[in-house]
Every structure is written in structure tokens, then in C-alpha cells.
Amino acid sequence: MKFLHMELECGNRTKKQTVSNISKVVCIMFLIFTVTTALLKINKFKVAIGDLKEPESLPSTSLKKCDIFSGEWVPNPEAPYYTNTTCWAIHEHQNCMKHGRPDSEFMKWRWKPNECELPIFNPFQFLEIMRGKSMALVGDSLARNHMQSMICLLSRVEWPIDVSNTKVFSFKQWKYSNYNFTMANYWTPHLVRAKKVDSNSALFNVYIDEFDETWTTHVKDFDYVIINGGQWFLGPLVFYEKQRVVGCQHCDLDNMTHSNLYYGYRKVYNTTFKSIISLENFKGTIFLRTFSPSHFENGLWNKGGNCMRTKPFRSNETKLEGYDLELHKIQLDEFRIAKKEGIKKGLKFMLLDTTQAMLLRPDGHPNRYGYWPNENMTLYNDCVHWCLPGPIDTWSDFLLEMLKMESVTSISKNMIHS
């Protein structure tokens, strides 16, 4: 959203002049009035529109400090805000209702932070804030899952036009013409350069210190870049550093040193952030969307594991542990390091820390409802991706609230330094 740039004349002085106390008070009051007006501009799009169903009792958190990522899931009878019959953007394997999922309660929850409220995603507000801007979602199939969720949520305002330069499904660009807003998806499951060893193997060579130019060469002109990556690092990998093998993960190769997964993962995020910070003329905001836990029970993903729960956990019923905990910690560590480096170039880093919220949603996965039971192919129960509609829609609640807070902060800084 673009705001008028206003000059504060009351801040000027000469050697022979001083600003009176009254003038100072007037300046402060004017600053408060201007920021408040900007907030009203942001909130004016929260209108009572029949099919929007946004709870009017949920005020924005933008006016006060609050950890929006710590909380509980609470019932939301107004949800969902779209269906599998009203949105064409849902991937077949996440179209749970189409494929016969018998329960629907998993769609009727919202995230409630412990110390404040998180408003339901408002598509009018989001598109107004993003007017004339662009956003890239970079990462694995969960980035695509998120993008398709956003397309469905935004469909109440406008359907996008496909402006992709390729027919490859994992490299799509969509434009919202009425708002001049472009949203793109870049498929890069390991974030850095990686190559499948052969077509008959699940083994990947991952070059943990090399940029993946399939996306790094395309995002420099985007206003917002959302990065994610995690689940693909739990499969069979051979790690390369400085063009030499430094170890592997579940590779089952002779004479191969098994490297610590966490070393490779940390190095990947270090390289990923460097690849963005080093982009010439990049002035955008970088979001890190943190690790999304899977919820396999009764076996591993390829050993009959499933996720058949129908309700969320309470926060005291489970906790982040094992590799989920370690991968999340690594992300936070590398994010802090990158944020400090980014500040030197005037870049903004924001943490979209969805891990705890998604840990509590074992009920939100497709499980066996991502395909027809009689399909003549081998498909495993999916306890990684998220049904649409479903819990992943809340990622856009988080994202919009962070964009609003960023807008208010930017306005305040511009006013102070004017």
C-alpha cells in the first residue's frame, strides 16, 4: 500500500531559533494523528461483506507487541472461507473433500495467540497492501501448497491470470490485474543446487555451498520473498561441499561417511541467505517460513504410517522434539545471522514462525484422502502436506498481520526521519 509522504516542517530550526514546547507538542500530536490515520486506511477494508465472514470482534495486533505464534487452536464455526467446489487452484493430492474425507471439523478452527487476537485473513485488505507489488514463494511443495491456499482465499476478490513463462507447474506466476500484484512459486526442495542421481533412485546430490540459480536469478525484482525448506532433507542425500563429498544421509552407499544431517541443513540455510543478500539491487523483504512438522503415526511414511486424527492437539498435549526441534533451531539460528548481515545492506528479514501452530494440527493432512482408493498407482498416506481448505490457510492470517505491522513500522520511520 502506498502512503503519502508528509514533511514535518515543525522539525526545522536555525541557529537563532528554537522550537517552543508548544510546537513540540503539536509535532507529536501530528505524528500520532498521521500514524493513526494510516492504520485506519489499513483497517478500512474490514468491511462487512456477506461472504467474507470475518469476525468483527477480532482486533488487529498491530497496535501492540504480541507473540502471534504462541497460542492455541479454537473453534471457528464461520470457516471455511472457500470450498473445493469454489476454488480450482487446489492440487488434486490436497483436495481432501473431493476424495471422500468423511469429517469436516478440521476446517473449522482458527489460531488464537495467547495474549492477543489474530484476525482472519481479509483478501481485500491483503490485495490493497500488495497493490503494485510482487511476492515469490520459494521452496518445496509446501510453498506450492501455501500459494494455492492464497489463490483460493483471494478468489473472493479476484481470480489471477497465469503469466508464467513456462508450462512447468512448479514455476508458476500469477497476476492480479486490478491490483497489479504478481505472485510466483519457485520449486527448489533443497534451496541450494541439487541433482537427482538417476531416475530410478530417490537419492539426491546436494551441493550445500552452491546457489540454486533456478530461483536466485529470478527473485531480485520481487518485493517479498518467502523461503521454506525441510522435509526433503529427511530423505537419502549425498552432501557436497567445495565440489567434494563430505558425507551422506540415508544413502546406503559403500565407503561413504555418514554426515550429520544438521551440519548439511545449517550449511544449506547459510548458503540460501547468502544467495539473497548477495543479489545486486535486491531491496525486498525476506520471510523465513519455518519447518512444518509431519504427523505420521503407526509407522514411517513408507511403512504404513498414517495420520487419522480429527481434532487439533492442545499445546500441553505434544511438544516439538527430535529432528523437528533441531531443524527448527537451526532455522532460527541462521535467520538471526542473516538478519544481522542483511541490515548492513538495508534488507528486512521477517520470521513467519508457523512451526508451533502446525505441530498442533495432526488432523489437517490428506492422509489417504489425496487420491481415489482404486487408483492404479502406489501412493503413500500424506501426513506432510495440508488439505485445502485447512490449517495452512492460517499461514495467510499470519502473513497479513506481519505485512500490516511492517506497513505501520515503515510509516512511523518515514515520519520520524522526514
UniProtKB/TrEMBL annotation:
Q: What range(s) does the Trichome birefringence-like N-terminal domain occupy?
A: 64-117
Topology within the bilayer: Single-pass membrane protein
Question: Which GO cellular component terms are attached?
Answer: Golgi apparatus; membrane
What InterPro entries does UniProt report for this protein, alphabetically?
A: TBL, TBL_C, TBL_N
Q: Which UniProt keywords apply?
A: Membrane, Signal-anchor, Transmembrane, Transmembrane helix
Question: What is any Pfam family matched here?
Answer: PC-Esterase
The UniProt GO MF terms for this protein read: O-acetyltransferase activity
Subcellular location per UniProt equals: Membrane
Q: Where are the transmembrane segments?
A: 21-40
Q: Where does the Trichome birefringence-like C-terminal domain lie?
A: 118-402
Q: Which domain of life is it from?
A: Eukaryota
Family to which the UniProt record says this protein belongs: Belongs to the PC-esterase family. TBL subfamily.
| Designated name of the protein | Uncharacterized protein
Name the source organism. Vigna angularis var. angularis
The gene for this chain is Vigan.11G070700
